[in-house]
Amino acid sequence: MEHSPRWLAQHEATMPAGLAWLSEREQARLDQFRFTKRRTEFLLRRWVGKYALAGSIGWPTDDAALARLEMLNHLTGAPYVEIDGVRGDMDVSLSDRAGTAVALVGPAGTGPGTLGIDLEVVEPRSDGFVRDFLTEAEAAWVHARRASHGEDGWQEAANLLWSAKEAALKVLRVGLRADTRTVEVSIDDRRRDDGWAPMTVTSVRGEVFPGWWRRDGVFLLTIAYASGTGAPEPPALMGGGTDLAAATPMHSWMGRHTVQ
Ligand SMILES: CC(C)(COP(=O)(O)OP(=O)(O)OC[C@H]1O[C@@H](n2cnc3c(N)ncnc32)[C@H](O)[C@@H]1OP(=O)(O)O)[C@@H](O)C(=O)NCCC(=O)NCCS
């Protein structure tokens, strides 16, 4: 794959009504979910992932085409792509939150993972959360944001650091198996005209993951690249997706907890 990384968001309301856009393997996986929330989230991540993959390789997005583009998972949970049953030479990362999902697609590298993406909503986070999951330096930064920007500043800062950690831990292909304090986030506030601002995540082993973050409405989006990538540009936005800034957070599964 030749393109530099690109991203896309899709709201739950844009998902096709049927399931013909899933492969047999994906349908079999879907059938294993008993809880509507898990099922909806899995579907939504497949939807955005396939749509983004189709866009990045110039394929159409009809059901038949999307069914040939599979979003599968390693035993670790990390996603990978197969096109007509053959492993694709690209890396993908997926995330969803409150009825909206995002995908980041880019060239595969030589290591386990080249990129990670995470989507969060700015929501209340307690003092205990900040104490338990953030490093001392990160906690100090969140406290400083409360002093300078009030309660909103605290919530945004705490959720942003959490998201950045998840993005980097997805690059590492470990996710939240790792202690969140084994990676430390450093945020830069200087937003570019396109909405992206730089950030860096450093691991206790000295790896440095360059990344970017943005705030769109109630959503916080972070992306991280593999250590040693240098100073890459933010991913370009693909066409055909949902505008995050205008997307309404929703929980469509509420009241329908189990699959009938
Ligand atoms: C990665 C992780 C932190 C994301 O959780 P989350 O914030 O609740 O959910 P998000 O929507 O942001 O991301 C979910 C996606 O993360 C990706 N993911 C899961 N594990 C991953 C890993 N080890 N490395 C990279 N990406 C991973 C998957 O693509 C997943 O979506 P999918 O299952 O539909 O393919 C979490 O899933 C995790 O810690 N996973 C590893 C541990 C685990 O429980 N594994 C279960 C093995 S099946």
Please tag this protein with its features.
Ribosomal Protein L22, Chain A, globular, 5-stranded antiparallel beta sheet, alpha+beta, 5 helices, 260 residues
Q: What does the model show?
A:
- The chain has two domains: 1-108, Alpha-Beta Complex (Ribosomal Protein L22, Chain A); 120-213, no CATH class.
- A hairpin with a 4-residue loop joins strand 9 (197-203) and strand 10 (208-216).
- It has helices at residues 24-31, 36-57, 63-67, 127-133, 136-171; strands at residues 6-11, 69-73, 79-83, 86-87, 90-97, 100-107, 115-121, 183-187, 197-203, 208-216, 219-225, 236-237.
- The mean pLDDT is 94.
- Strands 7-11-10-9-8 form a five-stranded antiparallel sheet, with helices on one face.
- It is built from five helices and twelve strands.
- It is of the alpha+beta class.
- Helices cover 30% and strands 27% of the residues.
- Bound molecules: coenzyme A.
- Coenzyme A is lined by residues 42, 45, 73, 76-79, 94-96, 118, 166, 170, 173-177.
